[in-house]
Amino acid sequence: MTDTISTETRRFREAMASFPSGVTIVTTADETGQWSGFTATSFCSVSMEPPLILVCLAASAECHPAFTSAARWLVHVITDEHTELAVRFATRGADKFAHPSFAPNEHGLPMLDGAAVTLECSTYEIHPAGDHTIPLGRVDNVRLSEGIPTLYYQRDFQRLEQQGR
Q1: pLDDT at residue 138 is higher than 70
Q2: Which of 21, 70, 89, 107 could bond to 41 as cystine, CB 3.0-4.6 Å?
Q3: DSSP secondary-structure letter at 79?
Q4: Nearest residue to 117 via CA among 21, 19, 23
């Protein structure tokens, strides 16, 4: 098998790996109540009024149909204790919800216990973007914990040292 990735694509990947980002696990439930989720490092705030965030989801992801039709979803900013779980949520075909830290919230969505931040969102807009889809979420509720978020840099998880908080 020959490597079909262009030099430009390879360099772009290297550049993006050189940008540290937070790590999120995004979860929802489809119309039948079946849970779905994915790991996203492409996550950011969009607007303060109204409070909007975005995540980026590969159009080829198994959970893509669930998120493009979901009315509500959760974004969990993970801590170091969740890095193995983040790898599982990034793996096609993995049993993502075998982890005992998930429980349904009041809307039946899978909530991760111990996340540094959990944002409960309602779908605001969905935009196609190349080989990804960008769901915009209106933040309806914010849950904060004392956990320290983990970072992803150079294709590995990095521990954020706590500075005077």
Answers
A1: yes
A2: 21
A3: B
A4: 23
Q: Do 67 and 36 form a contact (C-beta atoms < 8 A)?
A: yes
CATH code, 24-154: 2.30.110.10
Q: What is the dihedral of CA 84, 101, 52, 153, to 10 degrees?
A: -10
DSSP bridge pairs for 131: none
CA–CA–CA angle 98, 102, 106 (5° rounding): 140
Instruction: Assess contact for 62 and 113: CB atoms under 8 A.
Output: no
Pair of tokens at residue 159: 């521990």
Could you report the per-residue pLDDT of 49-100, keeping only the tens digit for each?
999 999 999 999 999 999 999 999 999 999 999 999 999 999 999 999 987 8
Sign of CA dihedral 117, 122, 126, 132: positive
The amino acid at 152: Y
Distances (CA, A) of 8 to 13, 42, 77, 87: 9, 20, 31, 26
Question: Where are the chain's structural domains?
Answer: 24-154
